[in-house]
Specification:
Pfam families: 2-Hacid_dh (PF00389), 2-Hacid_dh_C (PF02826). The chain is α/β, with parallel strands linked by helices. It contains 8 helices and 9 strands.
């Protein structure tokens, strides 16, 4: 119909990467659960293994989708003492992987060897439902799963079963299917699952930049000029 489309690329990489790391740390160190213990009176005398979680030092991190956000996540996790980075995707990205010494591996090997799995890939027919029963069954029982990409990359019923049955240790999601997630959804009943309301880009600076880009696209479109960021259909 000849309708021009503007968009706002490359503005939420840092904000989403920061949120991914925050979510990973919240899940692996059980921060929401621990905070609830303080509020609910569960904090009593010191106990050796109470509220213990999993640390990043000497761990293997698997990143599904080593694009801009995936690389930004790896860049932030590396100083925590991660021993090894694995990644998978549509093909090797040697230039992006070189900074972290990341190894390109099949999805099955990434699931089997990673202590932490972070999903930052695009949603495509190839990635839809990629993280399913078979994927979770290959993960370690001590592994932590984090998704900040798109909800449909994950089969949520299979994720629930994996968490409820102790196939994996914990999960953190910033994206779900549907959004908002119904308050009676089974995943919300689990202590080892932290779900956020899709706030990956939710910093004041990022949202302001997005707004300015959108406005400039609109003004250019109204003037019949090329948009600063126009989708070429």
């Amino acid at each position: 119909r000849g309708i021009r489309v503007g968009y706002t690329p490359d503005v939420l990489t840092d904000a989403t990467a920061e949120l991914s790391v925050a979510l990973l740390l919240s899940v692996c160190r059980r921060l929401p659960e621990a905070a609830e213990q303080v509020k609910g009176g569960g904090w009593t005398t010191w106990k050796p293994l109470w509220m213990c979680g999993y640390g990043l030092s000497n761990s293997t991190v698997g990143i599904i989708g080593l694009g801009r956000i995936g690389q930004a996540v790896a860049r932030r996790l590396k100083p925590f003492g991660v021993k090894k980075f694995l990644y998978t995707g549509s093909g090797p990205k040697p230039e992006g992987a070189a900074e972290f010494g990341a190894e390109f591996v099949p999805l099955t090997r990434l699931a089997e060897e990673s202590d932490f799995v972070v999903v930052t890939c695009a949603l495509t027919p190839a990635t839809q439902g990629m993280c399913n029963k078979d994927f979770f069954s290959r993960m370690k029982k001590t592994s932590v799963f984090v998704n900040t990409s798109r909800g449909a990359v994950v089969n949520q019923e299979d994720l629930y079963d994996a968490l409820a049955q102790g196939q994996i240790a914990a999960a953190g999601l910033d994206v779900t299917t549907p959004e908002p997630l119904p308050t009676n959804h089974p995943l919300l009943s689990l202590k080892n699952c932290v779900i956020l309301p899709h706030i990956g880009s939710a910093t004041y600076a990022t949202r302001n930049t997005m707004a300015v880009l959108a406005a400039n696209n609109l003004l250019a479109g109204l003037r019949g000029e090329p948009m600063p960021h126009e989708l070429q259909l």
